[in-house]
Each structure stands twice: as structure tokens, then as C-alpha cells.
Amino acid sequence: MLKTLPPTLREKKRYVAFEIISESEFPQKEVVGIIRSAVLIYCGIHGCSKVNPWLIDYRHPSGILRVSREYLDLLRSSLMLFDEYKRNPINIRIIGVSNSVKHIREKFLHVSHEPYYKVIQKLKKRNLVK
User: Which reaction does it catalyse?
Assistant: First the structure.
């Protein structure tokens, strides 16, 4: 069995709160496609693998992304320059950046973190989350 990496060797992450401004609503699967295509257009395949955008949570119109710390500027610029999805105008606004999901939810999205914490605790009791 493989050992886990010590914290000093793990990849550092940042969490980005964003808002999608558009005439239509998008489901979570489409938001993943929007973000991936924005990063692919601006950075290419190699840049997308380095940025490593991962959608943590999305509720229309705002969401949370997890990103590699070193390539945060590439993500910011690629999301700002993305202006069209499926021939519809779209604008992605970055609300804020933090190093924890809890701070993103409370400071930028103004949502209490407690309901999410309770769900995680229930899953831990059922041994579904480690």
C-alpha cells in the first residue's frame, strides 16, 4: 500500500469563488465544461494540466473552484477572457480567493459553512468519507 505524502511535499491549493453572468442558467456539468474550455483555449492542454481546475461546489450563479497555487494567475486571466459559450455571451467574474473552503463560503459567498460540515460528519459516521 502506498504511503501518503507529507504536507510539505503536497501540491498547494487555492480556492476561487466565481460568478457566472449570463442570460441562461447552467447545470453543474456544463459549468465544468465552461471552465475547462476557458482554460484550454487560453493555456492549452499543458497549461490546463498545470492549473488543474476542479469544481468543488456550484449553485447558480456562483461556485467554488480548487486550483493549483502556482498557476492561479493563469486561471484568473483565462476566466476573464472567456466571453462566449455555445454562441451565447457569458462573463465569468472572480469574487475572491482563499486557502480554505470555509473562508470562501463565509467571506465571499455569504453562506454558512455549518450545513456542509453536518453532511460531512454524517458521511464519516457511515464510513463513506475518510
Answer: Endonucleolytic cleavage of RNA, removing 5'-extranucleotides from tRNA precursor
Q: What is the pLDDT of residues 16-38, one digit of tens each?
A: 999 999 998 999 999 999 999 99
CA-wise closest residue to 67 among 108, 30, 96:
96
Q: Which of 103-111's residues contact partners 24+ apart within 8 Å by CB, and which partners?
A: 103/15, 104/15, 104/16, 104/17, 104/64, 105/64, 108/17, 109/17, 109/62, 109/64
Q: What is the pTM of this model?
A: 0.81
**How far apart, in whole angstroms, are the C-alpha atoms of residue 33 and residue 5?**
30
Q: How far apart are CA 127 and CA 104, in angstroms?
A: 27
* Range with lowest mean pLDDT among 1-5, 101-105, 117-121: 117-121
Domains recognised in the chain with CATH numbers:
13-101 (3.30.70.3250)
